[in-house]
Amino acid sequence: MLRTCRVLYSQGGPSAGSWQPLNFDGGAFHLKGTGELTRALLVLRLCAWPPLVTHGLALQAWSRRLLGSRISGVLLRASLYGQFVAGETAEEVRSCVQQLKTLGLGPLLAVPTEEEPDSAAKTSEAWYEGNLSAMLRCVDLSRGLLDTPGPSGNNLMQLKMTALASTRLCKELTSWVRRPGASLELSPERLAEAMDSGQNLQVSCLNAEQNRHLQAALSRLHQVAQHAQAQHVRLLVDAEYTSLNPALSLLVATLALRWNRPGDGGPWVWNTYQAYLKNTYERLQRDVEAARRAGLTFGVKLVRGAYLDKERAVARLQGTEDPTQPDYEATSRSYSRCLELMLTQVSHHGPMCHLMVASHNEESVHQATKRMWELGIPLNGPVCFGQLLGMCDHISLALGQAGYAVYKSIPYGSLEEVIPYLIRRAQENRSVLQGARRERELLSQELRRRLLGGGLKVHH
What we know:
Elements: H1 2-11, H2 34-47, H3 50-54, H4 56-67, H5 69-78, H6 80-84, H7 90-102, E1 106-110, H8 125-144, E2 155-159, H9 167-177, H10 188-197, H11 208-230, E3 233-237, H12 245-259, E4 269-274, H13 280-294, E5 298-303, H14 308-318, H15 328-349, E6 353-358, H16 362-375, E7 383-388, H17 393-402, E8 406-411, H18 415-428, H19 430-434, H20 437-453
Parallel strand pairs: 1-2, 1-8, 2-3, 3-4, 4-5, 5-6, 6-7, 7-8
Helix pairs in contact: 2-20, 4-5, 8-11, 9-12, 10-11, 10-12, 13-15, 15-16
Keywords: FAD, Flavoprotein, Oxidoreductase, Proline metabolism
EC number: 1.5.5.2
Cofactor: FAD
């Protein structure tokens, strides 16, 4: 059966001939207007300035006091917000997505939610229920954005687990999951049964309040996954800190038992794997095999990771082993191994395995496209690429114009909701922002060419 699937994939794959790497030289910038490129260059230069990222929230508050909310808001909309956010209303989001569609790119919507553990308002059940409503609306918006499904036949959205289940609960679950011989009370099978039945769940390692919250969180996750499948929207679960990820993986495994069954068009729930963690390759191997044994479809979003500085600081503070790779080169080797593992799985198991290559790294994207060609994986198969909206357009546009399925991670919402979210994401993605030097250089070159060369270059 696997051999037959491989043959079918090879027949649908790239045409014969030598593989030609894509050019990430900014040539695809001709698809964008001069104003867009100018804003991108200015914003990316600002984001590469460490004090702005470190003190972003304080600077935002200072700007509002000095300039007033209206002028401060206008400046933000013309800069950070305009570069990285789709808009506030459904109409603005649709307009942004239509622009992406003309460029050969698809949307990966993200609801900007930020739990604040010290805030009673942002840790109450009412807050999580409000997030549930926002997630359900995001499902509807994701489904309604395009007349037809996305470039790879998928409608996708991001799901942040800690918007529906508290970080305190996730830390408590993680502490138990990590113990040798962890209780069967916390098996995905038992949680899935409770999620399906809605019956009261009692886990002995949790107190009464935590048990109630776990039951409510399972109900919220069930509602989102059920609605997403009904609307043909796949959920890509965000990875978070190592203190939470084992609990998040448990919840993803719980959802997978119900929503990633073969024959249902899945996988509907994907997990995110962070290559900068030392144990990621082994965990990915284990999860691939577990899904295969259970006969489940399997979806993976592969990233390098965004919490490096915080993870190392926490390890030093607690006197524990640093969970991260020792340097960028080791992280890249880890990413390459994980990528090879998943591409091989896709080539052998076809639509049972889906992969998003979520990377801003040119070498990783080159590796992925070359191996897709070598393995006979078609461009419209279950492999897609992902980058952040407003960043890495020299890679995204080149991929999209070549026919690959490419998605842009798109937050949306009001200034008050999104700017704190963006600043925190910038703090977590410092290395990505500071490493965007090549993109800034390509933007500068294209703008100089337009200003000095007299117009747009015609590409044939």
